Backbone:
């Protein structure tokens, strides 16, 4: 779906006689803003928990409500699901706004750019400071500039992230471009997800290859160690047999020959037990039996 300026024609938010009524959510936002006070950064902080995420000064409240109204009407016309939710991070005073475009949820907010200037003590603050010797005052003051911008939130794959008042054109003229940007962001999110899945499959295949390579390497180390152990046991068994033969030769004329004979049988059985070649022969014989 390609939203052009014709999609948004007939709506000029700066016209007082605009025939398009404010969207109910925008109307509720305007009421809330009109009854709110500025926060630490000069923007109004509505008291209601589930208002639209609009961060503007009192002088831009009406204009911001009209911009949001047009966007909400456009969302409904194209059946884009819009929702307001709670957020968990540092901007907890503002809810989250998300619109679902082609199955992808995209967060955004409307904000006014504030001008920060160093705070100058008022006459009252100066007198209070002279009286007490110490007086706390804010380091900065924030003043309205009237410059509004729409910002996509946590949508780093989108080709364009923000739309802002310019020197020649106001934000109202970029609403069609913003809606186009939402569709581009949706496509970018899908593409990025597809690439992440593809990359994850490659990583998984590489992890499996590394696991298999490690298994083969460990098996080779084990085989070599077994080979060395078998060789060592074979040499030990051969030395034992040579020793047993020498003992047997020396004890031929011994009066306790029967005891030596028993020891010889025991010693040779032990030699066969540690001899890997003898063990393999016995194992094969038992299988044949």
Residues:
């Amino acid at each position: 779906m390609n939203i052009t300026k014709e999609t948004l024609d007939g709506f000029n938010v700066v016209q007082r006689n605009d025939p398009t009524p404010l969207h109910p959510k925008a109307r509720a936002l305007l009421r809330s803003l009109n009854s709110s006070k500025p926060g630490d950064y000069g923007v109004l902080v509505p008291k209601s928990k589930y208002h639209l995420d609009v961060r503007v000064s009192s002088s831009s409240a009406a204009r911001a409500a009209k911009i949001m109204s047009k966007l909400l009407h456009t969302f409904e016309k194209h059946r884009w699901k819009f929702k307001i939710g709670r957020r968990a991070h540092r901007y907890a005073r503002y809810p989250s706004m998300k619109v679902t475009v082609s199955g992808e949820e995209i967060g955004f907010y409307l904000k006014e750019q504030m001008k920060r200037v160093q705070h100058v003590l008022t006459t009252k603050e100066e007198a209070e400071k002279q009286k007490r010797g110490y007086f706390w005052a804010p380091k900065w003051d924030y003043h309205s500039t009237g410059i509004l911008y729409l910002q996509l939130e946590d949508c780093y794959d989108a080709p364009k992230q923000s739309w802002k008042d310019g020197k020649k054109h106001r934000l109202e003229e970029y609403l069609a471009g913003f809606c186009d940007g939402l569709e581009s962001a949706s496509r970018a999110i899908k593409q990025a997800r597809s690439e992440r899945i593809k990359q994850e499959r490659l990583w998984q295949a590489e992890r499996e290859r590394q696991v298999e390579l490690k298994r083969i390497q460990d098996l080779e180390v084990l085989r070599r160690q077994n080979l060395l152990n078998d060789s060592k046991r074979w040499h030990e068994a051969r030395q034992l047999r040579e020793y047993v033969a020498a003992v047997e030769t020396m004890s031929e004329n011994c009066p306790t020959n029967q005891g030596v004979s028993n020891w010889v049988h025991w010693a040779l059985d032990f030699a066969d037990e540690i001899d890997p070649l003898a063990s393999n022969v016995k194992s094969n014989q038992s299988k044949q039996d």
Q: What stands out?
A: Residues 5-198 form one domain. Confidence is low (pLDDT under 50) at residues 1-16. The CA atoms of residues 12 and 150 lie 17 Å apart.
